[in-house]
């Protein structure tokens, strides 16, 4: 009886996880974005720095406490930009690794108060956006090719880079 319960539990978990994976594919016309959580509290003091191009004059980092990987395949996070005078601004965004898109849900000025974007829209990560932080975050940590990484993998990649032996890379099957 116990073996039967364990087997049924494992089968239901496997079936449930396959549904999540199946939902987040390009050929799934039923894919839908989950309702995004409200913008989380963030701290400029705990951000993990992104490697940005030389022409970027602000320091950009991701607050690790804000990273959330949804069942819809979207990696949500808060990016904090700090200029040379120490003033910080933040954005609450989501990256859909599968399609290479980013969406900004809210912005916060130096006061830290969030202003929601009334109609957030998906933009291509390769577009000539005012900031390159979303593309940098996707490449450096959030996405393993076109698959959203887990929160643990994202944090590991931010700390040690994707070359770390504990990051799930393309060589690992």
Q: Brief overview, please?
A:
The chain is α+β, with helices and mostly antiparallel strands and 173 residues long.
Describe the structure.
This protein is an alpha+beta fold and 173 residues long. The protein has helices at residues 2-23, 133-142, 151-160; strands spanning 48-49, 59-62, 68-69, 74-82, 88-96, 101-108, 114-116, 123-124, 143-144, 147-148. Strands 1, 2, 3, 4, 5, 6, 7 and 8 form an eight-stranded antiparallel β-sheet that branches. Strands 9-10 form a two-stranded antiparallel ribbon. The model is unreliable at 3-23 and 167-173 (pLDDT under 50).
What's the helix and strand layout?
Elements lengths: L1 H22 L24 E2 L9 E4 L5 E2 L4 E9 L5 E9 L4 E8 L5 E3 L6 E2 L8 H10 E2 L2 E2 L2 H10 L13
Antiparallel strand pairs: 1-2, 2-4, 3-4, 4-5, 5-6, 6-7, 6-8, 9-10
- Cα separation of the termini: 34 Å
Our count of helices gives 3
Q: Could you say which structural class the secondary elements and strand pairing correspond to?
A: alpha+beta
User: How many individual β-strands?
Assistant: 10
Main pleated sheet: 8 strands, antiparallel
Q: Report strand %.
A: 15-25%
| Poorly predicted parts | 3-23, 167-173
Rounded to the nearest angstrom, the radius of gyration is 18 Å
- Oligomer designation: single chain
List keywords for this structure.
globular, two-stranded antiparallel ribbon, 8-stranded antiparallel β-sheet, disordered N terminus, alpha+beta, 173 residues, single chain, 10 strands, disordered C terminus
